[in-house]
Amino acid sequence: MADQIRFFDTTLRDGEQCPGASMNLRQKLEVARQLEKLGVDIIEAGFPCISDGDFEAVHTIATEIKHCTIAGLARCVPGDIDAAVKALAPAGDRARVHIFLATSPLHREYKLKKTKEEILVMAVEGVAHAKKYVQDIEFSAEDASRTELDYLAQVVEAVIAAGATTVNIPDTVGYTTPDEYARIITYLKENVPNIEQAIISVHCHNDLGLAVANSLAAVKAGARQVEGAINGIGERAGNSALEEVIMAISTRPEAFGGVTHGVHIKEIVKTSQVVARMSGMPVQRSKAVVGENAFAHGSGIHQHGILSKRETYEIIDPETIGWGATELPLTKHSGRAAVRQRLEKLGYVLTEEELTHVFERFKKVGDSKKFVYDDDISSLVNDSLDSQQGLWSLDFIQFVAGTHARATATLSLIIDNDKREDCATGNGPVNAVFKAIDRITKTKGKLVEYNVRAASQGQDSVGEVFVKVDFGTGKPVSGKGAATDIIEASVRAYLNAVNRSLTIPACQMREC
What we know:
Layout (H helix, E strand, L loop, with lengths): L5 E4 L15 H14 L3 E5 L5 H13 L4 E7 L2 H11 L6 E8 L2 H8 L3 H16 L4 E7 L6 H14 L3 E3 L9 H14 L7 E5 L7 H11 L3 E4 L13 H10 L16 H12 L20 H9 L27 H10 L6 H17 L5 H16 L3 E10 L2 E11 L2 E9 L2 H13 L4 E9 L8 E8 L6 E7 L2 H18 L9
Parallel strand pairs: 1-2, 1-8, 2-3, 3-4, 4-5, 5-6, 6-7, 7-8
Antiparallel strand pairs: 9-10, 10-11, 12-13, 13-14
Helix pairs in contact: 1-2, 1-10, 2-3, 5-6, 6-7, 7-8, 8-9, 13-14, 15-16
């Protein structure tokens, strides 16, 4: 349909490039499954040539996901394209190879050191090579918003002629403004003779806080695919927040020419929460649409208006996007079958081994609090999936602390069925347990960020801890942990960061 917007989700590729947001295969699969429920049109599952891990992630998601197009990123070189084709093979005719090549003067001169003519030849040859294996080809002119318009039009025309079915016009560094971006899209529609043979896509970064505005301006100008990430995560200041674009179009379709989409908006909040927990990147409380304060009203005037008629101060019904009360909570007396059923309702697909691990954690939490809410369970699942994939896991922790006592922590960690124990002192219990972890794992971490939040209601809620730790690389790694005891949650979060630092590929490629 000409007026239907396609949503291209790059949470698992560009989103994961956000410093510290690396996910393991199991976490990526959970995100992909939730994106499928959300109803995005295309899932960019990764960059197959970057590492064996990324190749496996793209291949697994292409195998498991049945109702979305699956894309794999590739530079405009045969080796990258071949790797993407191979990884995407299980998707069959739902496979999309996404090729990118820089076109702006800055990138041509300083990054690629190639002329306009050489770039044009590379672009055409890359698309033609991919077309031999896959029909769905997307070409991205990296840094398009800083490319000469006449040359950009020349490249777009050539790649469409070579077989590209989608042409992406990325604002790679978040440089442009809505009016400028709309003019670029309009120029291409008016000056590329074969433009109707491909879908125009836009991919905006948020360096100036304009990613969503730019994306919507492009839609109004005629773009029919929007790329972005859930919660807006991604390189530097992030990508266009897909949920914000979706809800802008859903709430104000007339403002964008009456365009439609096929997203199931009831899944938006859940998708945001899954991405936040799997990536270790918490959502800002005041974040539009999915932030905890998005539908909170502190002013008495606002509260009175809402009670009289919701529309006075709310333009979105929070229930339509997934906000609302959780199911009746479970208790420590709930059995394995009840926990399994609740997990299935929450959308988790676990193996028997994973279920056993989660159920053990659930029983421990149930012993320490009266009710176990859905958000508590989600935190335990996400924490369990993470820790099972790690190199180090927690055996036990003991600590002593007080206003007149030196904080001391004793830890036992397990690696390859080998228990290792050590102790450390610090200026508080969290500092002491982190030092003990460093001693046992032979790492040296510098805590860059430390955040604590309650997963659900009540003083006995499961606590979630999010950390960012620099292990001497200058690139902080995020970690997260959950437990009713906040010190234990802190240990789990720091261990998660340690494990990620040991498994993140040395080469982290950049993109459009």
